[in-house]
Amino acid sequence: RNSILQKALEGGLQQTNTDGTFFALNDALKEKDFTTNELVTAISVAWNVYGRDDALLYVAQKQGRVLLNKGGVGVAAAIAANKNLPPYFPYKSLEFTDGKNGDEGGVSILRNGKANKLTTLIYKFSAHGLSHGHYDKLNYNLYDKGNEILSDYGAVRFIGVEQKYGGRYLPETKSYAAQTIAHNTLVADETSHFGAKESVAENFHADKVYSNIKNKAVQVVIAKDDNAYKGIAMKRGVYLIDLPDGQKLVADIFNAASAAEHQYDLPFHYNGDLIWSSLKYKAFTDKQEVLGKKNGYQHLWKEAEAAVTDSLVQMTLLNNRTYYTISSLMQGEGMVYFTRLGANDPNFNLRREPAMILRKKAADALFVSITEIHGSFDPINEFSAGAYASVKSIKILQQDAGYTVAEILLNNKKLVIAQHNNSADEKKAHTAAGFSWAGPVGVFYDGKKLN
Description:
This protein folds into 2 domains: about 5-80, no CATH class; about 95-390, Beta-galactosidase, Chain A, domain 5, CATH 2.70.98. It is about 10% helix and about 40% strand. By secondary structure, it is mainly β.
C-alpha cells in the first residue's frame, strides 16, 4: 500500500516537539513522547521491512531499547557502530491531509531552524476526530526552542494514576479541554463550534484555501470554515516569517463575516511569565469571578480586564530565557481579559494555565496579530538583551471582499502582508493598497518582496 506504515511512522515522529513529546492535538496526552513502547516497536519493524534509515537512529538512541527481532538487532548494531549519530531528528515543514480521500482539511506544520533553535507552528483545519476530537477549527499552536509558547491543553487525564479516578479521562476533558475557548481560535457568543455536538461536528471539516511552505522567508497557510457556527464564515491566514535580519515572527490574519452581530472572543493560551503589557487593566486581586457560565468559560477565572478602543494590544512573555511579544490590533471598541484556568474545579484536575482573550462585538471582525520571537535573558549574569518588542503599530490599509492588506511597523521598517480573499491562483496578478504581486499573498519588508 505504497509504504503506508513507513509513512505513518514518519508522520508520527514529525508530529513531535524537539524533546520528543507529541503535539497536543485533540485528546493527546502531553506527557507522551517518542520513547513510548509503540514507537520502539514501530522503529524496529520499519528497519526490518523498509531498510536502514539513519534518521531513526536519533530517536532509537533516546529510546534506549529495541524490539527483539531482526530490525531491532539492526538498529542496535547501527547505533553501536556509528560514532557520528544524528545530533537531532530531521524535522521539516510538511502538510497532512485528513479523511479517507485526503479531502477533509488537514494539519500543516511550519518549521524554521533546526535542533535547539527550531521554531514550529502547527495549524489545524481538519475533520473532527470522533470521540477524541476537539471543537477547534482553525486553531494554531507555537513551539520555539523546544518550549510550547502558544499552547493547547490536550486531554484532562492522569493516565496510570489510580488516585485520579483510575487514570481515566476526567469530566473536565469535555467541560473544558474539548471546548473551543480552550484553544487559540475564534469563539462566537461564548459557544463552542458545532454546539459541542460530536454528531454534528463529524459531518463537516475545514478547508485549506492556499499554502506555500517551500519559501524559508515566508511560509503561509490559509484555511476557512463556514460550518462551525451557523451564519458565520471564518477564514484565517497564518504566516511563519523569517525576516532578512534574522528575526522570526508569526503573522495571523483572522476574518469573521456574518449578517448578524456576534460577540467574538480570540484567546491566546500561553506558557511563560507575563513581563509587560500595553494595557491599563484592572486586576482583580481581592475577589475573582468566572468569565462565563458554560462551554468551558465556567473554568476560567477572570484575573484582569481592560477596555480598549482602536488600540494596539501588546503583551510580552518570558519563557525559558527568550522573550515573546503578542501584538494585536483592536479596531473599534473591545475588551481584553487575562484569565487563569482552575475555576469550578473542586478536585484540582486542571492545570492553572493563563490566557489573554480579545473580545469584540460586531457582525464582521478582523483580528490581525503578530507574535515576535526576540531577545534573551541571562539569569546567571543578570541581564537581558533585545527584551523590547519591535512592533510599533499595526494598520489596515485595505479590507474588503477582495483583499486584506495589513501594515506592521517594526521599529523603523514596514512589513506589509497583502492577502487576496478569494483566489488561490498562484499566477494571477493583484494590486491593492499600492502594492502589486502575483498569487494569493504578497509579503513585503522594507519595500522588498519576501515571497
